Structure formats: C-alpha cells, structure tokens
Task: inverse folding
C-alpha cells in the first residue's frame, strides 16, 4: 500500500511541473551594467518567488500571480537592484543591469583549512566519495556504486541488494553510519541487504581499519559514513529528477528531490521508486550438486523486485546553532532465486517462468523507518554535537509452506519475521584549548529490541544495550606534523528470550521409550560485555607527500545469531547453532598510508596488518539435522594483512589514467580451521580506468568517455564448504555529458556493463554458493534534470 501511495504522489509531483507552465511566467536576463556581459548566479527574489540566473544570465520566475510585484536582484560584488513589474500575461522580457560595487574591505586573516588539508592531517586512512563520484559510478545498489574504491567491495544479493565489505570483512564488522547514527537492521544475515536510498547523498566517507574509538562495537573493520548534506543557500529553491532504465533486468527507476531555504529555516524532500524483473546471466543452465537447473531465456527466475523510498527533513540555522531532523522510509520486496531456497523449484507447482516481473515464493520484504536529529551548538571555543535517532526495521521472509521433519505443513507462507526497534543517542564535545590542541570527548548510547514471528526459527527475541565513553586529543606539533591519540571504554549486554517449537517432536528416552515434546531452541539468558578501545596515529606532510600511521585496538560484541541461533537457514542450505560461551572479538591493527600528489600525477599505497585474538566464525561440523549439515559458531586467532596501491595521471590535459590494486591475505592460526583463510575473502584484484574529455559536440557540453577494465585473480584460498573461484576479466564502458534542457542543467549517462557478456563468478556473491554466475551484459541509461 505504501509504495502505491508513493508512486501516486510521485506521479502527481511530476505532472505538476507541466501544469505550472500554464501560469504566468516572467523571463529576464541579468547583465553587467558596464560590460553588458551576462552575470551567472544572480539571485532574483520576490514575495514567495525565487530564481537564479544561468550561464547566459537568463532567469525564469514561474507561477507569478497577476498584479504588481517588486523584485530584488543581488550578486556578490554588485550593488543590489530593485525593479517593479506589472504581471498581466503580456509582460515583456526583463533586463536587469547590476553595477559593480566598490566596497573596501579591511584586512582579513584566514584561519580556516580546506577539506583536503584537514583530510591530510587526519591519521586515519579515509577515502571520500563525492556526489560527482556517486553520479558517475552509480550501480543498482549503494555498495556496488562504492565498489570502485580500492579496498571496498560488496556481497551481492541478486541485482538490487548488496552488503558492504572493507578489506575482506563485512556483516556487523563494518558500521554503516547515516547522519551520525549507526544504521541498525538485520545486517547479520547473508541474504539481508542495506536499506538505504543511494539517491540524494552528497558525500560518503570510507574509513578503512579499526574505528571503534569513535563508533564503538561493529566498527572493527571500518565505517561507511554517509554524511549529512550541506544546508541550502539562503533564499534558494532547487531540485532534480533522476530517470533510470536498464536492459538486463528491464529496470525502470525514478527519483525526484527538492530543497529550499528562506533565512534560518530549510527543508528537503525526496521520493524514489524502482521496479525490475528477473536478471539475466550468461548461461542457460546451472549445475549445483549434480542438479541441473534449466534457465528460461537466461533469466535467473524469481529475482524480480521493487523499491519505494521517501525522505523528508527540516532544519534550522542561526549564528551558533544548526539543527536538522530527518524522516525516511525505505521499502523493498525482492524475490529469491527459486533454486536457492531449499531447492523448491524441483517440486513446486509455481510456474516461475510465466513472467519475468512477478515475485513468487520465496521472497522477502523489508520496511526500514528512521527518524534522526543532528544538532550542532557552538560557543566560544567549544562545539557540541548531539545526535539522536529511532529506527524500526520490519522484515518478513516468505517461502512455500511444506513439512520439514517433525514440523507439519504450516498454515501460511511467513517463515520468519523480525521486528527491530533501535534508540540511539550520541553526544560529543569538541574543545579547542588553543591553536595546537583540540580535545574531543563524548558518549554513545544504543538500545535494541528485536521480536520474532513465523513458523521457522533461527534467532530468538532479544534486547541489546551498549554504552561507550571516549576522549581523544588531536594536537599539532607543527603545521606539517599532527598526532591523534584516544581511549574508549564500552559496556553492553544482550538479553535473549526463551523459545519453544510450535510443534511437538519425538524424543527417544534413555530407556528406549519415546515421548512427544516441544523442543526448546533458546533460553532466557543475559550476557554482559565490557572492553577498552584505543588508537594513536600520526600524520606528516612533507611538500607533496603525506605520511600516515595509525595503531588501534577495537572490539565487537557477539550478535544474537552467534550466541543463540538454533535452526535451519534455508537461504544458506544449513543448520546453524550459536554458542553462549563466545567472547567479544578483539583486534589490533596497524595502518599506513603514503600519498604523493603533484599537478599531473599521484600515487599512493595503504598497507595494513591485523591480528584477531578471537575471531567469530561459523564452522561446519560432521553432524547433521534432517539431512542438513550443522554449523556451529566458534572462535579462533586470525592474522590478516594486505592493502591497496593506487596511481593516477593526466595525459594531454583531456586524458586521465587511473589504476588500483587491492589484496587481502588471512590465516586462522588456531581452532578447528587452523591454516585456512576466512569466508568470503576477496581475491587479488586490479582496476584500470581511462577517462577522456571531448570538446563540445552538438548540444552536449564536454562529453566524457570512461573505460573500466577489472582483472581479478582466482581465489584458491577457501574455507569449506566454499568452492574455489576462477579468475576473470570484465570490461565496462560509459559515456556521460551535461547539456541544457528547457533552461535547466541536465546530465545524460549511458553505461555498458560486462561488454563482452563474460561468464564469471564473484567469490563474495551470495549466489556463488550454488554456482550462479554474475549478471550478463547490461545497458543502462540515466537522465538527471536539475531545476
């Protein structure tokens, strides 16, 4: 129901743009009074009306009512100009001439630092993905979009979902932070994606390596930090419409967003809708454990889905305070490949090939509702940051109701339901003692409440609470040498609830008799955890070279599935059992980053060394439950190392060449899998990119051609039941350009993925476990219109 209302609202908003053309419209031009040249970026303000002059000085005021109006025209460096206008439908084009102002400014001392300078002074290894990067590399999911960043990859779940992986670690070892609040869903599941709308994001910061000092548990491998967008300019209104189409899964998507601001108050809003069919792979059959699954016209049956998202925020800015409250709702419904969930298609009566766009059983649907507030208060040399949040994640997994073992046939298809509420509070105080020292301290509080339903049990209901206090000092020894050191303590508990099967099972007693009992899968249990995190880092800038080194200790609390799971996970074809004796994970990591950048060339290297005292993993056992192998959570010591190498150069001014290499080596040094690597370990990978900027062509402004060529080595280092994955090479092409469309700036992007329709396997893909290759050739066309 929600997505239908959203689609209706979106259609209405788009239609309203065309209806606005029937009202009175004022057109004009702003010019320099002395040179008669057009002025770009001049603001034209009337009562309830606003416009900004374009590259040729032109502006348009729409929806102007009949009568007399007064307008003010301003631009930096010019004297403001007022003009009166009678609007009656016969108004002529307005020409406004601004005179240059001769204001004499007193001497000003600039004490601020650029974002690039601040990033160099920060010892952590970070990478920022800008809005331009997002637009140029946008794929079907957020993490697929970011996977071009060295050291960042994704666990793909079909064509519309993915999970973040940083240097070979994912799931709850990577914290995803949006507007200062950690995104909390059911990210422990291999088949659970990331419920975040990637449209409208301006900047994402990737932190590689231990970041528990700032973010607490779950940031043991890194952070995907989605930063709040910059506030709109005063007296401004702007927006954009994004249209997207793809051939591989017949996707259609539209996303429209607006933002506006008067003086102190501003708002933003966005609606996104995406609908897609079954995606195609470059094969007509799949061979899994001697079962051959024929594919109809290469479609991976029942992988269609849809996504409907809405967000709104309202903010206030004054001299010493900025506050913004965000509301967002992300809804998705996706089918699972019919041969992946218990292999139902061999016995199912569902005609999975009747349509490529329907979503049959098995499928899942998830709704993530979020309210967050960011408030920044400044006074003298102190700045307080207060972040609060509430999240509700409601997830349902449906499959065909069939009997399993002693379980009779269920009455409905709802196999599992998870309902999770999360309350968050972050408070941070940044105190600038003097020019050299900035001391920051704060607390993080989070409470989770997770309830379950459905006829299939995997994890119990639980409550989880974490609290952390930290402090660190960033001080400047000299303008080129900066040190950051900090300490943090966290306390948390997880309280699991008892669970009994809803059906009786037959139990054989010691005397040989049989009895019928309701098996207990989980018990009432509270477990407490406490840990210390620490970090010390140094950044040294020498001319065009920046050296960084950071040593840190991080931790992660065990999750409910690791502690208390006891059920069949049909998505992963196994029986999973938790371990209440698990300790919190602890890791020590050394990160180094060396970057040399000059005007035409840059090169960098980012090696790391990582030691786990007690890494938690799911270990296969020789025992079985109803023909499914039992996996149990256990712990072992792990050694990891690796890093990234990157290089970029500009040739002939219009040609830019980029190359990157990423590699992760890991070994379990104790436990049942001593000598093995870790699951989902990405292989050695290299990406070559070439970008050429053409001159103006027809009405296209500086069209750009981008060629990406990725070479991935074979992954022979595996943990059973993983299979070895052969190496592959994939070629992608894209062309993008800006142009003017009805006085608005527009961007057109044409992309061709997997140009040669190569059949290859991604070792970190969810469907790799049943030998499903990656998607075949895909042509995508996107159009972004800014207004």
Result:
């Amino acid at each position: 129901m929600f997505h239908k209302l959203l689609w209706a609202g979106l259609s209405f908003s788009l239609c309203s743009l065309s209806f606005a053309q029937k009202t009175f419209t004022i057109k004009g031009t702003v010019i320099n009074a002395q040179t008669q040249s057009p002025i770009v970026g001049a603001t034209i303000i009337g009562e309830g009306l606003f416009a900004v002059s374009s590259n040729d000085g032109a502006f348009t005021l729409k929806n102007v009512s009949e009568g007399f109006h007064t307008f003010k025209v301003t631009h930096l460096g010019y004297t403001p100009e007022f003009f009166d206008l009678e609007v009656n439908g016969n108004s002529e084009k307005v020409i406004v001439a601004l005179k240059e102002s001769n204001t004499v400014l007193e001497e000003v001392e600039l004490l601020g630092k650029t974002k690039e300078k601040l990033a160099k002074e920060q010892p952590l290894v970070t990478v920022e993905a800008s809005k331009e990067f997002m637009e140029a590399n946008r794929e079907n999911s957020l993490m697929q979009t970011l996977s071009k960043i060295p050291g960042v990859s994704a666990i793909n779940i079909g064509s519309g979902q993915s999970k973040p992986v940083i240097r070979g670690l994912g799931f709850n070892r990577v914290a995803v932070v949006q507007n200062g609040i950690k995104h909390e869903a059911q990210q422990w599941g291999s088949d659970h994606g990331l419920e975040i709308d990637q449209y409208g994001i301006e900047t994402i910061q990737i932190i590689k390596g231990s970041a528990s000092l700032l973010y607490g548990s779950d940031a043991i491998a890194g952070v995907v930090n989605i930063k709040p967008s910059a506030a709109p300019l005063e007296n401004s209104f702007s927006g954009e419409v994004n249209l997207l189409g793809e051939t591989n899964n017949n996707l259609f998507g539209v996303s429209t967003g607006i933002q506006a601001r008067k003086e102190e108050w501003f708002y933003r809003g966005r609606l996104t809708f995406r609908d897609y069919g079954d995606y195609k792979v470059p094969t007509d059959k799949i061979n899994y454990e001697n079962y051959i699954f024929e594919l109809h016209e290469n479609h991976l049956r029942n992988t269609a889905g849809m996504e409907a998202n809405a967000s709104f925020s309202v903010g206030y800015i004054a001299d010493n305070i900025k506050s913004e409250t965000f509301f967002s709702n992300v809804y998705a419904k996706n089918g699972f490949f019919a041969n992946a969930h218990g292999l139902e298609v061999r016995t199912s009566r569902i005609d999975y090939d009747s349509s490529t766009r329907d979503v049959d059983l098995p499928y899942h649907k998830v709704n993530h509702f979020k309210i967050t507030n960011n408030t920044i208060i400044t006074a003298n040399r102190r700045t307080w940051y207060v972040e609060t949040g509430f999240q509700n994640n409601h997830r349902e997994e449906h499959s065909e109701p069939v009997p399993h073992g002693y379980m009779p046939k269920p009455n409905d298809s709802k196999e599992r339901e998870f309902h999770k509420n999360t309350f968050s509070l972050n408070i941070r105080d940044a105190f600038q003692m003097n020019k050299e020292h900035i001391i920051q301290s704060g607390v993080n509080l989070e409470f989770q409440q997770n309830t379950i339903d459905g006829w299939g049990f995997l994890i119990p209901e639980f409550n989880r609470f974490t609290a952390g206090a930290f402090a660190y000092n960033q001080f400047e020894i000299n303008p080129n040498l900066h040190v950051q050191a900090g300490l943090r303590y966290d306390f948390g508990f997880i309280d699991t609830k008892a669970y009994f099967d809803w059906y009786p099972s037959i139990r054989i007693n010691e005397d040989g008799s049989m009895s019928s009992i309701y098996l207990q899968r989980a018990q009432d249990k509270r477990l407490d955890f406490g840990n210390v995190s620490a970090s010390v880092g140094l950044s040294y800038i020498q001319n065009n070279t920046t050296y960084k080194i950071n040593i840190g200790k991080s931790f992660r609390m065990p999750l409910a599935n690791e502690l208390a799971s006891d059920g069949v996970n049909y998505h992963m074809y196994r029986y999973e059992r938790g371990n209440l004796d698990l300790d919190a994970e602890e890791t020590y990591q050394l990160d180094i980053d060396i970057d040399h950048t000059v005007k035409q060339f840059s090169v960098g290297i980012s090696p790391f060394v990582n030691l786990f005292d007690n890494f938690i993993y799911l270990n296969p056992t020789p025992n079985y439950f109803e023909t499914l192998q039992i996996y149990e959570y256990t712990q072992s010591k792990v050694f990891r190392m690796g890093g990234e190498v990157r290089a970029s150069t500009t040739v002939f001014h219009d040609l830019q060449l980029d190359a990157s290499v990423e590699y992760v080596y890991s070994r379990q040094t104790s436990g049942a899998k001593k000598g093995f690597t870790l699951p989902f370990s990405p292989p050695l990978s290299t990406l070559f990119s070439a970008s050429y900027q053409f001159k103006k062509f027809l009405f296209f402004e500086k069209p750009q051609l981008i060629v990406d060529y990725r070479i991935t080595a074979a992954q022979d280092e595996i943990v059973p039941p993983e299979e070895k994955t052969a190496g592959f090479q994939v070629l992608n092409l894209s062309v993008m350009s800006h142009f003017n469309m009805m006085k608005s700036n527009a961007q057109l992007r044409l992309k061709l993925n997997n140009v040669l329709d190569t059949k290859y396997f991604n070792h970190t893909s969810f469907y790799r476990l049943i030998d499903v290759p990656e998607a075949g050739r895909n042509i995508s066309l996107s159009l972004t219109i800014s207004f």
User: Anything to note?
Assistant: DSSP finds six helices and 45 strands in the chain. The first strand starts at residue 26 and ends at 32. The chain has two domains: 2-98, 220-786. The first helix runs from residue 2 to 19.
